[in-house]
Amino acid sequence: MHNLFVRKMPLFRIIKVSNSGGVHDFSFVHEELQNKYCLDNGCNAVPPIRMFKYLLLKSIFDVSDVDVVERSKYEMSFKYFIDMAPEDGVIDSSCLTKFRKLRLKDINLLDLLIQKTVEIALEKEIIKSSAIIVDATHSKTRYNQKSPKEILMEKSKLLRKAVYRIDEKMKDIFPSKTTTNELEDELDYCRKVIHVVEKEESIREYPKVKEKLNYLKEIVEDHQEQLQLSNDPDARVGHKTADSSFFGYKTHLAMNEERIITAAVITTGEKNDGKQLQTLIEKSRETGMKIDTVIGDTAYSEKDNIQYANHNVLQLV
Fold first, then answer.
1. Looking at the chain, which terminus has fewer C-beta neighbours within 10 angstroms, N or C?
2. Does 61 score more than 70 pLDDT?
3. For the stretch 269-289, what's the b/e string if a residue is b when 16 or more beta carbons lie within 10 angstroms of its beta carbon?
4. Domain extent listing, the chain
5. Whole-model pTM?
């Protein structure tokens, strides 16, 4: 859920305009991750701030670990954001994989990024308003309840289609599709597809093919973590209207009039919107924002919220 939401965050836009065009201070990353590293033993680590920025780029542009590192070799905007000189070498993509799996474990990344976004905006005097707008949006559970086998079939199909656009004769070279419902058989098939594409040097280097190839490889290599999300025990059926439903989660948002998200609460799909109002207000205030008005629909007009607003001298609209 965090990765899905981070892509919609305004942090990157604010960072780019902060400090008169310079890059904002990311020292908070050191503070958050200092207990994840050994400070007196072992080799020097890649600076955690740089690794964190790599992950921001990966989330914003929705690419694999391999591809975000590859693009940082030649895209000057990436190098500038990561604080690298044009001639500097890049990290090995395996370092990024380990960083997101081990160093960011148990870190509440969503609240951290929202808080830093608002802090930067307040510091740069971007935020002038004292009102927040609250609402909820539904997020379907990842892969829409597809089985792990269906996920693999979809990703391998996307790779094959990218290859066929370049050379349709490759249809005769790819292995036969699986006829069983076993996950291991589908994993084996995907590995064979990957092997075939990697052997074709003239095809595998096409950007569209390369991205699909790297994405499939990442899912196959990380299948225990990646594919278990498709069987999501926490997702619930929720209703947007009386006659429509979805399976997944709700993202309850607070946003100021400058269109900067000030708080977010993620719940299962069946939760009532109004019950999250007080938490959204408190989280927004924790970022340092002053609030005197809350704007929302009638889902937030329950008695407890009206009493809370009166007690805290807030105007509910």
1. C
2. yes
3. bebebbbbbeebbebbeebeb
4. 2-123, 131-141+236-316, 144-230
5. 0.53
